[in-house]
């Protein structure tokens, strides 16, 4: 993993880990967080300006960093910094591989605009990278987890729906993604910039600052440099707390020459972050509501981003989805890169035009069914023909028979389905005892797959004059249901023996 950091010190320019290491010593010349500024105008960017951040100025309307390099003031625009970072990544990759990198797949957040993609592509080209394709981060995650794709041994693609939960440093991004016949479609996205790993570190910084004050009587809250030292220490402590229930935290010369040496237990950290965790839950519930999905309709949860390693985060997700498969990768912060690499190896031999054509679909949210479309059986039971969240146009063909001897007419109707209400949730009491993240889940009724009942009649048709004297079930009637991109429904019924057929459309 190469952190997205670029730094300058004396006559030297650094990238990645080396740049990160000088961050505390030389914060004015350490550039971080530029990835999300790609393609933005200077006015759109909120720039913190103090002793712990580099100065930012506008250069031709584009945000740029003012740094000291080789004893002179230099101004580097965001795209220029991105180029420096990408060049560094390219060099590292070539050193590691011992060969030239011939092409690369890049991933961007779902909320990146076309313009942002173009600026990124240009920065990459300037860095000497042959950009094969730019894909969306959740799609890269799905590829890395091989979500819904054929199994190397069992084979067979599957139609499924995933919730991708990506918590990185600066935001929490959620995506509902479906896979139908191996093709990914992004159905819904939600995004909260107040909920990244940094927000969690910040809570820990506040905790440590309080402790420091208790121990030394020195208030560090207004001291930006002191807080930066605590933040660097807290970042390490936070990561350790993912593995153990308590972790040391040490920072030297925080304020007035005084050090801080202490230890933080996980429970305290989690309580301090309880509002943040609650907000994560709200965002998950919000996106499910927006997508009109219940928890049971999610087949898999794909965890992405370093901050999803927090045990409390995982146990909260488990609480919301008691039954769903949660895919976690030890290296959750590398999942997107792995997905890009997989895609690159897949398309390396393709023609450029084919690659572009194959990915246009991913750029915007494709039209899709919102509610399931189905037929009604005995006892008014609803059977789904085309599930909700199926990309349009869609087509399904199936066969059925007449139900009575001598029946010469069949009636066929399609309805929209509405989900049946779920049984009420049991009240949950949050317990706060150390190390019992996993045990504090109480017995709960597990929600099963959602069931539906019919609501609106969408289209109906009668196929008449069927061959006389046929026994129940002996005739084969083929139904073709098509839904076009405007959601218009077309039904065709055909009796296979006589070839008699009828067609109807929705209003
Ligand atoms: N073990 C851990 N426990 C808690 N947080 C962690 C752990 N490991 C990494 N993190 C946090 O994950 C974040 C970095 O994750 P990641 O590398 O996925 O972010 P990013 O993709 O660079 O950021 P963004 O998606 O916001 O642009 C940091 O805030 C880091 O503190
Ligand atoms: Mg990320």
From TrEMBL:
One annotated Gene Ontology cellular component of this protein: cytosol
Natural source organism: Modicella reniformis
Protein known as: Hsp70 protein that interacts with Zuo1p
Family: Belongs to the heat shock protein 70 family.
Chain segments carrying region Disordered: 419-450
An example Gene Ontology molecular-function term: ATP binding
Compositionally biased tracts (Acidic residues): 436-445
Chain intervals with Basic and acidic residues compositional bias: 423-435
InterPro entries per the UniProt record, alphabetical: ATPase_NBD, HSP70_peptide-bd_sf, Hsp_70_fam
Keywords, in A-Z order: ATP-binding, Nucleotide-binding
């Amino acid at each position: 993993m190469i952190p997205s950091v670029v730094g300058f010190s004396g006559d030297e320019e650094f990238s990645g880990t080396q740049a990160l290491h000088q961050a505390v010593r030389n914060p004015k010349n350490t550039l971080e967080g530029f990835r999300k500024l790609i393609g933005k105008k200077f006015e759109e960017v909120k720039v913190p300006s103090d002793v712990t951040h580099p100065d930012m100025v506008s250069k031709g309307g584009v945000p740029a960093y003012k740094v000291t390099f080789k004893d002179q003031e230099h101004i580097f625009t965001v795209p220029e910094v991105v180029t420096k970072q990408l060049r560094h990544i390219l060099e590292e990759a070539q050193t590691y591989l011992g060969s030239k990198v011939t092409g690369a797949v890049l991933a961007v957040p779902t909320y990146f605009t076309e313009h942002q993609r173009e600026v990124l592509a240009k920065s990459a080209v300037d860095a000497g990278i042959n950009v094969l394709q730019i894909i969306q981060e959740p799609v890269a995650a799905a590829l890395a987890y091989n979500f819904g794709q054929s199994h190397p041994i069992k084979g067979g693609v599957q139609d499924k729906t995933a919730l991708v939960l990506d918590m990185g440093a600066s935001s929490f991004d959620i995506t509902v993604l479906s896979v139908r016949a191996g093709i990914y479609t992004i159905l819904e996205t939600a995004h909260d910039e107040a909920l990244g790993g940094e927000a969690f570190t910040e809570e820990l910084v506040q905790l440590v600052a309080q402790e420091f004050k208790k121990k030394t009587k020195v208030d560090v809250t207004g001291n930006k440099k002191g807080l930066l030292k605590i933040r660097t220490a807290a970042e390490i402590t936070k990561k350790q707390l993912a593995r153990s229930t308590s972790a040391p935290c040490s920072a030297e010369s925080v304020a007035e020459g005084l050090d801080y040496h202490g230890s933080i237990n996980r429970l305290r950290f989690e309580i301090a972050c309880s509002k943040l965790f609650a907000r994560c839950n709200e965002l998950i519930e919000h996106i499910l509501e927006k997508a009109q999905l219940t928890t049971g309709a999610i087949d898999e949860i794909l965890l992405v981003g370093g901050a999803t390693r927090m045990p409390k985060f995982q146990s909260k997700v488990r609480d919301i989805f008691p039954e769903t498969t949660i895919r976690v990768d030890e290296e959750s912060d590398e999942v997107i890169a792995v997905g890009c690499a997989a895609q690159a190896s897949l398309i390396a031999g393709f023609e450029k035009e084919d690659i572009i054509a194959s990915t246009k679909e991913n750029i915007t949210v494709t039209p899709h069914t919102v509610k399931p479309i189905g037929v009604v059986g005995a006892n008014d039971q609803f059977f789904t023909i085309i599930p909700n969240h199926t990309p349009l146009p869609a087509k399904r063909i199936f066969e059925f028979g007449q139900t009575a001897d001598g029946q010469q007419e069949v009636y066929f109707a399609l309805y929209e389905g509405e989900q049946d209400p779920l049984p009420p949730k049991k009240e949950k009491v949050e317990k706060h005892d150390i190390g019992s993240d996993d045990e504090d889940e109480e017995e709960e009724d597990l929600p099963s797959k959602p069931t539906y009942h019919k609501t609106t009649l969408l289209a109906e048709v009668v196929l008449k004059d069927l061959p006389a004297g046929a026994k129940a079930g002996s005739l084969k009637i083929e139904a073709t249901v098509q839904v076009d991109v405007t959601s218009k429904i077309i039904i065709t019924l055909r009796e296979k023996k006589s070839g008699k057929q009828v067609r109807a459309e929705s209003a």
